[in-house]
Amino acid sequence: MKKNDTLLDSAGPNTRLAHVGNDPHAYHGFVNPPVVHASTVLFPNAEAMEKRSQPYTYGTRATPTTDALCAAFDDLEGSAGTILVPSGLAAISVPFLAYLSAGDHALIVDSVYTPCRNFCNTMLTRLGVEVEYYDPEIGAGIEALIRPNTKLVHTEAPGSNTFEMQDIRAIADAAHKHDIVVTMDNTWATPLYFRPLDFGVDVSIHATTKYPSGHSDIVMGSVSANAKHWPKLEEARITLGICGAPDDAYQILRGLRTMGIRLDHHQKSTFEIARWLETRDEVSRVLHPGLPSFPGHEIWKRDFKGASGIFSFILKADAENMKARAHAFLDALTFFGLGYSWGGYESLALQVNLSDRTICKAPTDGAVIRLQIGLEDVADLKKDIEAGFAAVAAL
Ligand SMILES: *Cc1c(COP(=O)(O)O)cnc(C)c1O
């Protein structure tokens, strides 16, 4: 289907991003795939219909547009199959529903994306799954938490908001001794900076809302599984009637083409700002796994090929003035918008709420401020942050 698979396999990341997915010559030579809007797909005769003997059978199953994006993800992740879902959160909940049943036990990293915890503590618990949170730095020690009914270990590295690293290989090895499926939310690194399946993970999850989209205008998720775990994932998608919309799939594929150069820029600017923040008196600590001062740095250096554009820092404050200082800082920002999500071209800031944590509790040395460094010029972003510090000092 693709141009020349062997050539592509040995190509660099940006070459791959430019050529993965669709084959232009499969559709009249147009460089991009068509956006196919479909429910009904017609069959030429009753026998073809009975045997479903054609590539496309119904709009919810697949279209040339969604197939192009899934093929791109399979190439980037090294997976056997990928499903598209309507959001990054659904990219977590759908595989959990695929692999877990009543009576099962699931181990979830404590630094997990907050809405994942909400799904686990409400719907998953209601369906009879026992959920237990574990320390992100547990490594091979996860084996001590495994019970006879443990069926899934969920990882996310770096962790949401506080960026704890995980020894993914050690966790996957321990889980696989007990035939447990290992899932990983790989949104932060994207497949360019970390390939979970190469480290033993079975199922890699992305909020493609973030860097693959890159423009803050799409919500979509992807789930990519290895050969062993692909059939159950595909079956769950079909059973639940979940599918990716064609216009969104098209936009995500479009975003992937430039993701490498965007990430490169995000990475450079983010390192520059993170290192500068480490020198500031207003800052207690910078939570960025690419900094040698960060506790998980050695794992990041060993396993990851790069760092994206989101990290946090701790704005010095006492318990009593934490909120006032955080609000003064945030309200003085101009280029940094106050908003959720990330991965777009524009910078964002927020005060992190860690009240849901049971193991990795909120730091006490100040307010945790999360920054997404966009594609703006670093000098302008620094000026903006300085204005934030000045507002804090003026309190
Ligand atoms: C944003 C995010 C999600 C959810 O993505 P949505 O498309 O916003 O639902 C999942 N995991 C991580 C790590 C995220 O940052």
Describe how the helices and strands are arranged.
Elements: H1 5-9, H2 13-19, H3 46-51, H4 64-77, E1 81-85, H5 90-99, E2 105-109, H6 114-126, E3 130-134, E4 150-156, H7 168-176, E5 181-185, H8 190-193, E6 203-207, E7 221-225, H9 230-240, H10 246-278, E8 283-287, H11 297-303, E9 310-316, H12 322-331, E10 337-338, E11 348-351, E12 366-372, H13 378-393
Parallel strand pairs: 2-3, 2-4, 4-5, 5-6, 10-11
Antiparallel strand pairs: 1-7, 6-7, 8-9, 9-12, 11-12
Helix pairs in contact: 2-10, 4-10, 5-9, 12-13
Keywords: Lyase, Pyridoxal phosphate
Cofactor: pyridoxal 5'-phosphate
GO molecular function: cysteine-S-conjugate beta-lyase activity; pyridoxal phosphate binding
Question: What would the keywords be for this entry?
Answer:
seven-stranded mixed β-sheet, 37% helix, 395 residues, Cys_b_lyase_bac, Aspartate Aminotransferase, domain 1, 2 domains, pyridoxal phosphate, 12 strands, alpha/beta, five-stranded mixed β-sheet, binds pyridoxal-5'-phosphate, PyrdxlP-dep_Trfase_major
Explain what the structure shows.
- The protein has 395 residues and is of the alpha/beta class.
- It has 2 domains: 5-255, Type I PLP-dependent aspartate aminotransferase-like (Major domain) (Aspartate Aminotransferase, domain 2), CATH 3.40.640.10; 259-393, Aspartate Aminotransferase, domain 1, CATH 3.90.1150.10.
- It is built from 13 helices and 12 strands.
- The chain has helices at 5-9, 13-19, 46-51, 64-77, 90-99, 114-126, 168-176, 190-193, 230-240, 246-278, 297-303, 322-331, 378-393; strands at residues 81-85, 105-109, 130-134, 150-156, 181-185, 203-207, 221-225, 283-287, 310-316, 337-338, 348-351, 366-372.
- The strands form 2 sheets. The protein has a 7-stranded mixed sheet with strand order 1-7-6-5-4-2-3, sandwiched between helices. The protein has a 5-stranded mixed sheet with strand order 8-9-12-11-10.
- Helix 7 (168-176) links the parallel strand 4 and strand 5 (181-185).
- Helix 2 packs antiparallel against helix 10 (246-278).
- The model has no long low-confidence stretch (mean pLDDT 96).
